[in-house]
Amino acid sequence: MKRPKKFTLPNLVDDLKPFLLDWLIWGYIAYAVVFLLNSYWYTQYIDWYGSLTLKPWGWVLTVLGTFTCALMSEKFGISVGLKTIKKVERPPQKTWALTNWGITAIALVVLTFWVGWITTDIDLGAIAGRAPKTIHLWSGLSHPDFTHFINIDPELEDTILGSLIDTIFMAYLATVIGGILAAPLGFLGARNIMGGTWFRRIIFYITRAFFNVVRSVEALLWAIIFAIWIGWGPAAGTFALLIHSMAALAKLFSEQVESIKKGPIEAVQSTGASFWQTVRYGAVPQVVPQYTAFLLYRLDINVRMATVIALVGGGGIGRFFFYYKSQLDWNQVGAVTIIIAVVVWILDYISGKAREKIV
Amino acid sequence: MSTEEKIKERGPWYFWRNVIVVALFLAAFVYALTRINLDLTLLAKNFPSTIKLWSAFAKPDWSVLGEGVTLLIKTLYMAFMATALALPFAIVLSFLGAKNLMQSPVAKGIYTFVRGFASIIRSIQPIIWAIIFVVWVRTGPFPGVLALWIHSVADMTKLFSERVESIDVGPMEAIESTGAGKVLILIYGVVPQIINPYLSFTLYRLDINVRMATIIGIVGGGGIGMRLYSYIRKWNFPKAVVMTMLIIIMVWGIDYLSSRLRERIETGGGEKTKGFTI
Amino acid sequence: MAQLEIEHLKKVYPPNVVALKDISFEVEKGEFLVVIGLSGSGKSTLLRCINRLIEPTEGSIKFEGEEVTTASSKELKLIREDIAMVFQRFNLIERSLVLTNVLTGQLAELSLWRSLLGRFPRELKERAHAKLETVGIPEQAFKRADELSGGQQQRVGIARALMQDPKLLLADEPVSSLDPATSGTIMDYLAEINDQGKTVITSLHFLDLVRKYGTRAIGLKDGKIVYDGHPKDIDDEKFKEVFGEEAEKVHIT
In CATH, what class is C4-93+168-248? Predict the structure, then answer.
């Protein structure tokens, strides 16, 4: 059944996509080359290092130059854009690394590695040269001082064990509440449920945007906000973990809802069940086990995050770590580190086993 | 067995087990609420203290945009370098940490050592590693890269070796039956089965590293987080807001790209399996 | 009045794929009607139009005198209670218990809150166990549905359909995913249901099954009825008409 091909706007955009990607790549190459020139051979003409400033003619040259290169790359068959978006087949005899675009891709990775090496100040000499500075650290780790594990530290007015329990309960609360809030959000963010009418679709996009933005801000940054909001303490840390978990779980959950199978729903519908009965017996059983697994996985992540959230005033065992570290009390730092590692490791193991059993 | 008996067989025992589990969860929840003192009314009561923060969203200070973009690019490079440098280590270690490849007594010892070490390193957050490396090689992006690197090596080793452990022995046996040696078995029997999952995990880890790189600066690990934190400490919210927006855009973008690429790798470039609409 | 009357039924999938064009036939109570045809000939669409899992584009379907195509959602639920369906891929809720799967057949009779909480009355549970006994797998009741073999899963599907106590049973290629031996058993259950006076409409691929079980056969090709008669009368000529020229020598047994 052949239908005449329609030339609509989206089609045009689709055709332009490979070119735009190529243009972007050439723009990146230009950036990298200027960066490298700058770092080895600094002149006043090409000054791109500080804050993306360039003389006006430099901008014109860059835009025109990269545009031409992008146009040419399709001609010479080195277009990464065509390969990735249009999925051009490679000649069967060649391995991918030897095709034109393969060489381009490898060259890009090498270039990135080169620029990255310089821009992140990698200095292997420092690792060896400054190793003596870390001796007290290793000696602290090998001679841990567990006195405050069950004895109250007068400065922090708590025991390590107490704050450890805090840490676990912070993660627990954040996961449970976050998980409960995420469930409806996940439904609202699932395309197959909310794709029907334009009104629903607007809700869908708002929900998606909301949880993607919230998810993009790390829990540690949320903790800063909540520490300002309600003051330092485990409650601020819990709120931070909670809101981040909610968004992350909502995303996973919406993907799960989107992948439910049609068959069981049809079967339940065909018995004369109502909409809610169909959701309860056709859809929910398909998502619950996977969702429980996500919750366990999230609990695991939250415990890890809860160990460091004290850095910005979020409470938990990290309080001891950062306090002892600021006092340069390395033996106690060692003790706290060991406790964190052991507890996180145990919880990781349990959560992994439980997830295996569920899914 | 009559129907009556069958209902009984499952009856009270099953019911009470569920009740006990739910009761335990609820008890833990209530206890946690009181212990952590999670008070929602506090959020409303203390809202005025955050007005300065929210109002900054209405009036961001765009003068730091150029600086922010430069730092953003640097942060991306940190994540890239950490992942790229971790990859070769993780590949080698993943074979040494795969139970099914490490059978002899000596090999078993190596296996236990590799996996144990990876677990311990993984249990310690990159932030804590960053503190260690800041002491070691001074403040800047380099300790940040090292912290992400060591955590990535451990994490990828674990993921990779679990993948190697679940490979199909069929192709390996087929190669072995031709009289090939250990290296050839590895190259032709194992590698083709793991190359796509490895790529996929690496992209996944790159995604995580980008997220982590945005906060590792708080302890002196360089990148955009370092500047963001200093603005927050100076209570300069209009500038902090610009940094936060940039972080959101980057993390969102990388997350999208990485998940699209992973999807393509996992489906072998084929059609995306379409979900179903109610 | 026939039990099921279909007149000028048409189904067009957007944008313009015509799956059924102008289908009309009647089914009497107690018939064992088999729909045959190549894949893509519209068999599944036809069966799914009868209980409106797929919305027909044009035409009328009357079940026991009631119009299906224009029924409100409430009326449709009542109609669906009397029409059970068995699927090719079984369509069980895989992670739920076998018993729960059978019980879903009775959802329509349950009050909403009871069904949402999953509190099925004892009498219903007993009936579900009895139905599992009917299909010969009483011992599997408390297993998860995905732990069962294909044949066993289809039996659960039939038990679920029986739970409805339907007047009409639709079976969409009930044995296409099963091996020949199991197929026979499943078809025997359908025949047994038919013997109890229930109408069965099923789509099948295998001609010998059609001849053995059907009391009437309808051949579909490109969404049109090309044959309507007794299965025993399907000769090579008719067979070619239904399955196309190429299929002549391919022996579908």
Answer: alpha beta
pLDDT tens, position by position, A228-256: 999 899 999 999 999 999 999 999 999 88
pLDDT category at C231 given cuts 50, 70, 90 is confident
- ipTM attached to this prediction: 0.87
* pLDDT for res C192: 92
E strands present in C4-99: 4-13, 17-27, 32-36, 58-63, 66-67, 83-86
Residues A301 and A193 occupy one common structural domain: yes
Q: What is the pLDDT of residue A207?
A: 93
Collapse the DSSP code of B77 into the 3-class scheme (helix H, G, I; strand E, B; otherwise coil) and give the result.
helix
Provide, as residue numbers in chain C, all residues whose Cβ is less than 8 Å from the Cβ of B6: 129, 138, 141-142
Residue scoring higher pLDDT (C165 or A100): C165
Q: Which residues contact B11 (CB under 8 A, 6 or more apart)?
A: none
Q: Confidence class of residue B121 from pLDDT cuts 50, 70 and 90?
A: very high
Query: Nearest C-alpha of chain B: how many angstroms from A75?
Result: 24
Question: Which of A130, A224, A262 is the closest to B232 by Cβ?
Answer: A224
Question: Could C130 and B3 be called an inter-chain contact, meaning their C-beta atoms sit closer than 8 Å?
Answer: yes
Examine the pLDDT at B58 and tell me if it is beyond 50. Answer: yes
Question: How many residues are given for chain B?
Answer: 278
CATH number at residue A176: 1.10.3720.10
Which of C 117-146 lie inside 8 A of B, CB atoms? 122, 125-126, 129-130, 133, 138, 141-142
Check if the beta carbon of residue B167 is closer than 8 Å to that of residue B192.
no
Both A109 and A177 in a single domain? Answer: no
Q: Mark which of A76, A104, A119 sits at the end of a domain.
A: A119
According to CATH, the topology of domain B55-266 is MetI-like fold (1.10.3720)
pLDDT at residue number C46: 93
Distant-in-sequence, close-in-space partners of A5: CB < 8 Å, separation ≥ 6: none
